[in-house]
Amino acid sequence: MTPIERKPAIGRRHPADNLPDKPAPDPAPAPPPPTRETLEPAAPLPPQVPLDERLIEQHNVRIRPSTKARLKRAVDRMRYETGDRSISEASLTDRSIREFLDRNGG
After folding, report:
1. DSSP type of residue 9
2. Whether residue 3 has pLDDT greater than 90
3. What share of the chain is helix, strand, coil (3-state, %, to 5)?
4. Labelling 79: which of 57, 73, 89, 93 has CA 20 to 30 A away?
5. Angle, nearest 10°, between helix axes 89-103 and 65-82?
6. CA 96 to CA 74: how far, in whole Å?
7. Spatial contact of 71 and 92, defined as CB atoms under 8 Å apart
8. Are the C-beta atoms of 98 and 104 separated by less than 8 Å?
């Protein structure tokens, strides 16, 4: 028997095949040498939470869908800008509640 050359029944290409190649990144200029101002934090760092105060308590509440969407966007943006993967919805909510209670004497 001789092999038969057939075209595939579905001739569509993958949509990603039409995307252009990613351009090469431009070399970044060398950063200036660190100075005393850049080495010290501008604001005091928040105190570290002791190990017995980890985010383990669950607090179920109802919030607006728009607030939840804003929280998700804020977490994504903060993770992207800082590169800190420890930022989460829980940690941001915890910090916000603690800040609110400290400010309002709770």
Report:
1. S
2. no
3. 40, 0, 60
4. 57
5. 100
6. 12
7. yes
8. no
- For 31, phi then psi, to 5°, come to -70, 150
Degrees, nearest 5: CA angle 81-84-29 = 50
Residue count of the chain, please give it.
Answer: 106
- Give the residue extent of every domain in the chain: 62-106
pTM: 0.48
Alpha-carbon span 70 to 92, nearest angstrom = 12
Going from the C-alpha of 101 to that of each of 38, 96, 106, the distances in angstroms are: 31, 9, 4
Work out the end-to-end distance of the chain between its first and last CA atoms, rounded to an integer number of angstroms.
86
Q: Residue with structure tokens 């869908």? A: 65
**d(Cα 20, Cα 70) in Å, to the nearest integer?**
32
Distance, C-alpha 33 to centroid of its chain:
28
Q: Using DSSP, how many helices (H) and how many strands (E) does the chain show?
A: 3, 0
